[in-house]
């Protein structure tokens, strides 16, 4: 069950999106998210959807795999849509107790739903086509100016990439410990909230111990391979913009411009 | 002076109990002298806790000696200025494959070392290509390490070290967490590096089979080097090795026993062909005075105990992620019946479905097809008490010590009975009984489970399941990572549980040697299908088929078949060293009688 989460997982394939510079993908994703909130008309969403579909096709990642990443967020999505649905003032269509479903509410809820779904798919296209290492490299480069104000950018990037590497391992471990304790009669499902929290102790303590043990091992392995911070380090895959990256920036800039034009014109 | 030289090396671990107090001093290694020549394949043997890993960490400069000096390629490891040079010259591979891979893609991980060394980008790529090729992992360069097998991960780790162009590579129990296939893979890779690239290899292990091909062997015990020599010398001293909690390969043990019996067999036999050759020589004569034992064959247990039906599987199938692109059939149409009181072994390589299978026995996994019955009741029928079932069918997972969580041993063992809603006194009584069964006395009750040794922790964890008084006890690889003595202790205790409590034991393993000694019935799994299910002797007779599915019969089986081919009339169904010794002596005796 835990292993079904695909957000943040890299999907190896050979596509133009996979080859793009991670900085381009990062900036483009941000632009895309902004555009979702700049667009406000159905036509605008159509354009956003078209753009998204184009990206999905270009990424060569199976659509089914991508959709699986949506499932865990479904609940959040439904709650957001629900609140938008019942708490938006306007022309009442149907009411019950303090809940009123309005015409505006329906419209807003659908818009919010579309925005969230597009946002999540958009962001997952980035993580699916970019290895976490590239992603952190990209962030490291984008944030490098912050070094001047003594933000340890390299260290943060390294921590992020290690965290990403160990998330699936710890997920699997959680699954295993949970089963092991269930085999000893532990119950993770029934009881009230306090009991449930208390029942988590046999899961959390071994998990933390394991995480610390792994951290310790990893630190040693890194030291043994001469890791000593970012100074004097070279890169196997240094980031360098190529023609296609500039081209991609151009396309994204065009898309953003379009969305702004839409907004200004009022469609 | 060789590439690595140690003089009077000693190291103390300090443990601070409370502030201000004098720390507790534990001397992990003491008076260690080493001189290792460049280009050699060196093995360091020792049981768990003998100080061999501490020594390894010195060679890489991860630890600095308390006393004495260690030179790596003429550099003193105590000097701060040389530390990065030393680590580059003497690379290190650790035990746990997961915890030493930093990159999220294979090739990026291999590039990690060179990046740290400041190697220019183009050279990094060259080095990564070469290293991956050297360990045969080029095809996996774009893969995520999480999707690789244990053996493949260790090969990636070795490539990561090779990319730093070391002169020497130290491997600290690299195969302890792998299955036999993974072990072979890794050893082959290491041996090739040593031969082709001329890298000095220091292999630290407690598996004796792995050191047979070493140029030089050191044996450690309690921080000291207690034996040193070529494998032949070391292996001829079987008694001494046993004293140091090590054991020798079955073939060496058999040769040793035959020699003790009076046959003219040379010392230190390491491989099967050597033994077979030695036995086919004409000067092999049955010693005078040897008599054919009356009836040496231990009385075969007539039939498997056929107790009350306990676990029964009917057409069970299990599919992971059904309907998706990741669909995988872990089990296919498994039919199985295990009566109360049997001692069953389940064997299969990693991914054969054996772990999935055992999780069906106590209802942790719901089959996608078929039915599972416990004592005649369908466990997935409505209102069947699944939690109750789990206390009757105890399951001890692999590395069970990772599930310990309480502050002291007794409370942790009480966790199971407490979940059965038993009164506290009863819980405690059962916990104490269980701990006694695994050989831990009162002095351990109040200890924290985390300060125990690896073997002790594992026993606490097994007691934790045992305390629920299960009728069936399933153990998944209970000996993984233990040294030979620890392995024998655990297995002996499990066997005595079977005898004294009469509970059904289901032992999952990939070591035929371990299983052959104890079980009455072997179930072989391959690709989710039950391939064999019979008494051990009958299963091992299919040793060629077993090999084809990546498993191996015990060494003894191979020896006996090889001897038979040479015309010696031995009993090919012998499965342990004692049986084999008697059978060989008997066959030789018969041969001589016929000649007369």
TrEMBL record, chain A:
Main location: membrane
Membrane topology designation: Multi-pass membrane protein
Domain of life where this protein originates: Bacteria
Entry keywords, A to Z: Cell membrane, Membrane, Transmembrane, Transmembrane helix, Transport
A cellular-component GO term for this protein: plasma membrane
GO molecular function, one term: transmembrane transporter activity
Subcellular location: Cell membrane
Transmembrane segments: 29-58, 73-96, 108-129, 149-171, 246-265
Pfam families named among the record's database cross-references: CbiQ
Function: Transmembrane (T) component of an energy-coupling factor (ECF) ABC-transporter complex. Unlike classic ABC transporters this ECF transporter provides the energy necessary to transport a number of different substrates.
Family: Belongs to the energy-coupling factor EcfT family.
Subunit structure: Forms a stable energy-coupling factor (ECF) transporter complex composed of 2 membrane-embedded substrate-binding proteins (S component), 2 ATP-binding proteins (A component) and 2 transmembrane proteins (T component).
The protein, known as: Energy-coupling factor transporter transmembrane protein EcfT
Species whose genome carries this gene: Oliverpabstia intestinalis
Lineage: Bacteria, Bacillati, Bacillota, Clostridia, Lachnospirales
Automatic annotation (TrEMBL), chain B:
Residues annotated as signal peptide: none
Root EC class: translocase
Keyword Cell membrane: yes
Domain of life: Bacteria
EC number: 7.-.-.-
SUPFAM superfamilies linked: P-loop containing nucleoside triphosphate hydrolases (SSF52540)
Subcellular localization, as worded in the UniProt entry: Cell membrane
Chief place of localization: membrane
Domain (ABC transporter) ranges: 14-247, 311-552
Short name of any one Pfam family annotated for the protein: ABC_tran
SMART domains per UniProt: AAA
Lipid bilayer topology: Peripheral membrane protein
Keywords tagged on the record: ATP-binding, Cell membrane, Membrane, Nucleotide-binding, Translocase, Transport
PROSITE patterns in the cross-refs: ABC_TRANSPORTER_1, ABC_TRANSPORTER_2
UniProt GO molecular function: ATP binding; ATP hydrolysis activity; ATPase-coupled transmembrane transporter activity
Family the entry assigns: Belongs to the ABC transporter superfamily. Energy-coupling factor EcfA family.
NCBIfam families associated with the record: ECF_ATPase_1, ECF_ATPase_2, PRK13648.1
Quaternary structure, from the entry: Forms a stable energy-coupling factor (ECF) transporter complex composed of 2 membrane-embedded substrate-binding proteins (S component), 2 ATP-binding proteins (A component) and 2 transmembrane proteins (T component).
Function comment: ATP-binding (A) component of a common energy-coupling factor (ECF) ABC-transporter complex.
Protein name per Swiss-Prot or TrEMBL: Energy-coupling factor transporter ATP-binding protein EcfA2
